[in-house]
Amino acid sequence: MVDRVQEQWATERPELDTTAFAVIGRMSRLARIVERRLIENFEAHGLDGDWMFDVLMTLRRAGEPYELTAGELVRQTMVTTGAMTNRIDRLEARGYVLRQASTSDRRVVLVRLTSAGRAIVDETAIAHYRLERELLRSLSPRQQAALASSLRTLLVDLGDVPPETG
């Protein structure tokens, strides 16, 4: 598709430089394809799209007791507090998380992964990372590393600053 668009512009408007479109157009198409495949995988595991996996994985990565404040979840998942409240409500209704007030500060809400939440996220993570490897199977490990590095450089340049590493 991208090649055809570039060929058409080369014929109709040869003075247009579509070099960047060769990258941006492919990244856009790739993002849609990857997103669709990931969502299908999440749904196959009983999760409503990527947001459930994102919240559950954030809690799982936090380590025992698999608990974060609602504010920490907002910062780590980059959604609004209203959206996070809705997400926690829905995950709690499914039995994947528990919400409780902090013993040290009643204004702070703690969100903890339940055993059911841990089981679903652990199961889904295996399939998720397998699918990601499958999606990149046409690239060698060296090509994957170079692509990851190039994308990181571009994201940082566009203001998506990586979190501090500790």
List keywords for this structure.
mainly alpha, 7 helices, 3 strands, 66% helix
Provide an overview of this structure.
This protein is mainly alpha-helical and 166 residues long. The chain contains seven helices and three strands. It has helices at residues 2-12, 19-44, 49-61, 70-77, 81-93, 115-135, 141-157, and strands at 67-69, 97-101, 109-113. The mean pLDDT is 93.
Order of helices and strands: HHHEHHEEHH
**Poorly predicted regions:** none
What average pLDDT do the residues reach? Answer: 93
Compute the number of strand runs: 3
Give the strand content.
5-15%
* Number of separate helices: 7
How much helix, percentage-wise, in residues?
55-70%
What would the principal axes of the Cα set say about the shape?
elongated
Strand order of the largest sheet: 1-3-2
Radius of gyration: 20 Å
Structural class: mainly alpha
The description of the largest β-sheet is:
3 strands, antiparallel
Distance between the termini: 43 Å
What is this entry, summarized?
Helix content is 66%, strand content 8%.
